[in-house]
Amino acid sequence: MKRNRLLLAALVVALVAIFLAFDLGQYLRLEHFKSRQAAIGEFARANPLLAGGLAFGIYVTFTGFSVPGALILALAVGAFFGLLYGTLIASFASSLGSTFAFLASRFLFRDAVRNRLGERLGAIEAGFEREGASYLFALRLAPMVPYLLVNLLMGLTPIRTRTFYAVSQLGMLPATILYVNAGTQLGAIQSASGVLSPVLIASLALLGVFPLVARYVVESLKTRRRLASR
Fold first, then answer.
1. pTM of the complete model
2. Counting C-beta atoms within 10 Å of the first and last residue's C-beta, which end of the chain has fewer, N or C?
3. SS3 sequence, the chain?
4. What is the rounded average pLDDT of the residues 198-207?
5. Widest pairwise Cα distance in the chain
């Protein structure tokens, strides 16, 4: 098991090193997609399934290995595949890639964290057993929280993999639709950060927090009723 962890960690480090050494990040810049928009768009129109499959694979790979750039990929997918097909690609690819990153984090780091924190981790894990899906949903709807960080941190919790995937699929959908839709107007976009206004960020964050607040209110009312009936 320890050897497998070392091999996986070495693979991740090697891929990140290759990414940095060959400056592959230049292909994830908005300017690159805008400069190649006509050529890539023509290929996508002529080969929608092949191009969609390639885009899906690239998206899963980058999110799975926690490489920044998913927002740019969502814009590009919207530009080359349109809102419906682009959302289908980006939504499932981002959720699947995030689940891979989540599992890698759990495999590599969770035991070490458990050994270090010991009994102190018990209360945290118990809380996530009860509220994990709600917390994750709130984080997924808050664009100011880096999705890469959410993937890695959630891997350290006891949340089930299928729950993580399902909540991620649903929670990331609003922002995914937003970016893919913005990508259909790629020529007019100057930066990825310009897509989200402060009001929109606040709205998505409030939408994510609402389930937590609602559950707190319901539990408080139940507690008061139990105390009043005594």
1. 0.74
2. C
3. CHHHHHHHHHHHHHHHHHHHHCCHHHHHCHHHHHHCHHHHHHHHHHCHHHHHHHHHHHHHHHHHCCCCCHHHHHHHHHHHHHHHHHHHHHHHHHHHHHHHHHHHHHHHHHHHHHHHHCCHHHHHHHHHHHHHHHHHHHHHCCCCCCHHHHHHHHCCCCCCHHHHHHHHHHHCHHHHHHHHHHHCCHHHCCCHHHHCCHHHHHHHHHHHHHHHHHHHHHHHHHHHHHHHCC
4. 56
5. 73
